[in-house]
Amino acid sequence: MSGLLGARTCSRPGEASDLKSPLSAKLREPLTEARFQQLFGDAEQERELLAEPRWSELCRRWKRRTRACSGPGAWRLLLARLPPLRWLPRYRWRAWLLGDAVAGVTVGIVHVPQGMAFALLTSVPPVFGLYTSFFPVLIYTLLGTGRHLSTGTFAVLSLMTGSAVEQLVPEPLGGNLSVTEREQLDAQRVQAAAALAFGSGALMLGMFALQLGVLSTFLSEPVVKALTSGTALHVLVSQLPSLLGLPLPRQIGCFALFKTLAAVLTALPRSNPAELTISALSLALLVPVKELNVRFRDKLPTPIPGEIVMVLLASVLCFTSSLDERYNVQIVGLLPGGFPQPLFPNLAELPRVLDDSLPIALVTFAVSASLASIYADKHSYTIDANQELLAHGASNLISSLFSCFPNSASLATTSLLVDAGGNTQLAGLFSCVVVLSVLLWLGPFFYYLPKAVLACINISSMRQMFFQMRELPQLWRTSRMDFAVWMVTWLAVVTLSVDLGLAVGVVFSMMTVVCRTQRVQCVALGLAEGTELYRPLKESPKLLQVPGLCILSYPTPLYFGTRGEFRRMLEWHLGLRRGKKTPKTDGPPDAVAEPVRAVVLDCGGITFADAAGAREVVQLASRCQDAGIHLLLAQCHASVLGTLTQAGLLDRVTPEQLFVSVQDAAAYALARLELAGPKTCTVWV
User: Fold this and answer.
1) What does each C-alpha distance from 587 to 450, 533, 584, 663, 675 come to in angstroms?
2) What is the C-alpha to C-alpha distance for residues 329 and 593, in angstroms, rounded to an integer?
3) Which helix H or strand E contains 626, and what residues bound it?
4) Which of 132, 289, 295, 384 is spaced 20 to 30 A from 60 at the CA atom?
5) Among residues 323, 290, 321, 311, which one has the least CA distance to residue 453?
6) What is the pLDDT of residue 42?
7) pLDDT greater than 50 at residue 14
């Protein structure tokens, strides 16, 4: 017990201490919270902490917001909301411009076939995928904080949007539509997809107004990776009819994947040999090119644009061989030139699409924020999660006026942008130039492009998502709980649907967090001789435990879900259960437990406490008082102490029972309560 030895005794309560500078001495007296505030804080702050509600904090926040209305405040706000005003003046033109130009053009070349392919996944004509590869990219360049993020069409969102569009605008049962009826159906589906983009954008802007960027943390990494991996399997199965040339209706709802597989197997004898051959040849080219780009990314000056090569070869082959007329191969057809006329979405449709817009908004923000954070950490800069909400919300809402469907950051194009040497958001402008040239002049060259090639592009772009499953063995070794979250989310996405799978994954992930807080044990601490270090008694039998003094640590939040376990564990340690005469001991098996006369509760691990948890502590103080046990609280966070005070803790204990550390509380207990051991209460510094 040498860590508690000293020569001076404690001053009596209310008596002035000669402690002037605790940090200048090797020995000092135990510090209570009140005494600490006298020495290092101010009395007004102490009274606020222990007695009054903290209205001053609200006043300070209000003053900060009102100062933003001044000239300098408005300029700071403009700098925060328009990131190019910050990074463009510091742009290294000679060092970065060439890399941004090459990366932007490379990504733009990939955007063209990928945008058209993902448009088919969304159940809208291919040209609207080009619109979605232009307007959102341009808006994010002006508002986004992710320097290496590539936005546009994304397979997960396209699949979610396509399922919602098929529900909102189902295809007639007959299926044999005239050209006019097909155009009307496509127009209705485009409006539904644009309404989904408008709704998800409005939700993200509302989240930005409420500063809810922190919500991205609720979609953990296992949930996001399982969601994208499961969605990749949905994309693969949904593209099988296009690969085989089977005009099958799209399956939606729960078990859609298995319904689609059953329909494909049933209709397999009716597959189109020409489209099957085109699909096989396309995959035979795209998959090896993808593998080459990954294996030789450090040696290639820029990734091989396998998609655009395949598009050109297939278009030339279909045109020269008249495959559309001779073998009934489905082609893209005419891509309208120019831009669509701006149209405001039908507000009457918004209530119908709100249920589908919410998961789309959450997935958009979660995937984009996680991707931006990964590359920001890799390249040593920071992103603003709330500004990302503004950027993606505005890009979805504004682009919906030009008939775009929901969009977000893309895993494949972001990786491509980084590998091609992109440095800043300026690469997005070069990408927009490529897509713009297709919209204005090069659209007719894609007239004879077979839709089966677009389906192959969809499948080949899922490579990175499929390979996420290779991380499962490492995840199993690292955290079994995260592995369980990954598997539950993936199974829910595959068997049910993307929307329901996301909900199941989030709920299960949050349940694991709650279960972890409820499984935490209240630990008895002992003193390492010759030091002031208190460690769990179970870690070493050599730790010292003073008879009659119990030092407990509760390392988890105290709220309605944990208060029952908190009460049971404290009763067990202190012997407060009915019919229990002696407390539990964590010492040697042959140790004789003595009645507890003083207990030190280390509250350093209690990061927050709600009203129910605070009442539990007050009831514990009352029961300890009735049992003749002196309760001392140590290391209470300011917010926790405020909650306990409002719950009436100071009616049961005095301010002299609140200490700044476990060492101070233990020294006080040893000196004042006449326990076995030294009768001093000085503490090493």
Assistant:
1) 76, 17, 9, 20, 18
2) 86
3) helix 611-626
4) 384
5) 311
6) 56
7) no
Half-sphere exposure of residue 585, counting CA atoms within 13 Å on the CB side?
20
570 neighbors 620 (Cβ within 8 angstroms): yes
Report the distance separating Cα 363 and Cα 297, nearest Å. Answer: 29
CA nearest to 642, candidates 63, 60, 33, 61: 33
- As a whole-number percent, the residues of the chain with pLDDT over 90 amount to 20
**Strand (E) or helix (H) holding 12:** none
Residue pair 370/181 in contact (Cβ under 8 Å)? The answer is no
Phi, psi of 599 (to 5 degrees): -130, 135
Pairing of strands 630-634, 598-602: parallel
**Alpha-carbon gap, residue 234 to 293, rounded angstroms:** 25
List of residues 6+ apart from 601 with CB closer than 8 A? 552, 554, 631, 632, 633, 634
- Alpha carbon distance 615, 645 (integer Å): 10
> Other CB atoms closer than 10 Å to residue 93's CB: what's the count?
9
Measured CA distances, 476 to 467, 479, 485 (Å): 16, 6, 11
Q: How far apart are CA 505 and CA 159, in angstroms?
A: 18
Q: Is 13's pLDDT higher than 90?
A: no
Give the model confidence (pLDDT) of 248-276 as tens digits. 888 877 888 899 999 999 988 888 899 89
Helix-helix angle 480-495:498-518, to 10 degrees: 160
CA gap 119, 194 in Å, rounded: 12
Evaluate whether 96 touches 424 at the Cβ level (below 8 Å): yes
Q: Which residue has the tokens 């984009």?
A: 368
